[in-house]
Amino acid sequence: MAEVHIIGQILKAVDFAEPHLYCKWSLQSGNAWRLVQGEVQGQSHVGSHRLQNCSDFAQPLDIHLSAASVLGWPRLLVEVYAVNVLNQSWPVGYGFVHVPTTPGSHRLEISTWKVAPNGWWQSIREQFGGGGAALSKTDLLYSGVERYKLHTLSSGKVIVDLNLIFRKFEDYGVEFK
Amino acid sequence: MSVWSEGISLPGNMDTSPPHEKRKQKPKKNSKKKKSQSAKESNSKPMEAKATASYFSLSITGQIVSATFPLGPDKEFVFLRYELIAGPDWQLASGPQHGLTQLATNKSGHFNEPIVFNMPIEVTYRSTSPYGWPQILVSVFGRSGLGRERLLGYAHIHLPVFGSRRPAEQMEQLQTPILMPKCPNMIADVTSWLLRREPELKDPKVLLDNLKCKGLAMESYGSLDFQLSSVMRGARKLGYHWHA
User: Fold this and answer.
1) Residue A58: its chain B contacts at CB < 8 A?
2) ipTM exceeding cut-off 0.95 for this assembly
3) Which chain B residues contact residue A49 at CB under 8 A?
């Protein structure tokens, strides 16, 4: 079975409007992929910066997957949540990126979006009432099937550093060029 | 070169087979390396198993260059304590696992100049799998002129996975943010300000875990510069493809 090692860090979130953020991430892949070692989901601490408007997570990733097929290449899903003084949290960014298909070190920028407020009352609640709307079914993040009726706003970016090591792909005839 | 001739320093893995027998079991060892004749060899049974399941070795050389604080460090003198943490398949073959640097300052220059440590890091690891790639976890402490020490933050990074991809004259420059734990609520904040005791993490390895740092609040201020490069041996034989 071919194996993929993903070693890296979710570095930081930039360009978000809120200062205190944390990030929930998960790695999803198709049925032919199996997790050998490591954890496929996690949650970072709440990060903020003293001077700039970015949040450093430095969340280490170390995942060992084994693949029986190229179908269902793994994706990294990221949800950024903001926290206010009363310790309430609400999502301010959803995004995903496919893990790169060549071995080596990559720096990825995940652009995120959030659900747009539906009217005047919802905008007020977003500012003062502990946050805006969230997605009820998070599989909308990676599937394009039912996105039609959703209104979204662009949000900041999450920067991820990944190092990929592949093993035994050549034995199965897969080439990387 | 006797770097690899030092015995494996983990307990529970002591080999009592004589050195020349070990050389037979590992034919692909470099002929320039000499086996150490001292008695600190590992136990025969796990070493035999390890010889047939081949391993690759990773050698990291470099230094912790400096720490930079944009508005100056909170205390006059800064020192670091670093620790190397790796997964269960990894064994430290040579080099120290912990270290403590000197007390450095940038008092005489501009306040946001980098505080230079120039702390060397030279370690060699041996492993059978890249899972649990070693990370370096640095705790930054500050000390005022009167002798009071205080935690200034933590920084951690994976040791470089790809060493030979960059051009030969440029070592990989890594910069990590320094994260300082914050008090969990306002009462703790006021208490810590009154008693002058800042929060410290009981076990900084919590930052390396994916689920345990839920609910922790950290503030980032300052950054730490590393210059590290890696040399790997034996990985291609096991079928790993580091580069396309």
Assistant:
1) 155-157, 176-177, 179, 207
2) no
3) 219-221
Is A117 in contact with A123 (CB distance < 8 Å)? yes
B120 part of contact set with chain A, CB < 8 Å? no
> For residue B167, what are its two tokens?
């051009």
Q: Does 3.30.950.30 match the CATH number of domain B58-238?
A: no
Domain residue ranges of chain A, discontinuous segments joined by +? 2-115+154-172
The structural domains of chain B, with segments of one domain joined by +, span: 58-238
- Encode pLDDT of B80-113 as tens digits: 999 999 999 899 999 999 999 999 988 888 888 8
Evaluate whether the domain defined by A2-115+154-172 bears CATH number 2.60.40.150.
Answer: yes
Show residues of chain A in contact with B241, CB under 8 Å: 103, 165-167, 169-170, 176
For the question of whether the overall pTM of this predicted structure is more than 0.90, the answer is no
B111 interface with A at CB cutoff 8 Å: no
Residues 6+ apart with CB under 8 A from A94: A77, A78, A79, A80, A112, A113, A114, A135, A138, A141
Inspect the interface and report whether the beta carbons of A47 and B176 lie closer than 8 Å: no
Reported as a single tens digit per residue, the pLDDT across A119-129 is 888 888 877 77
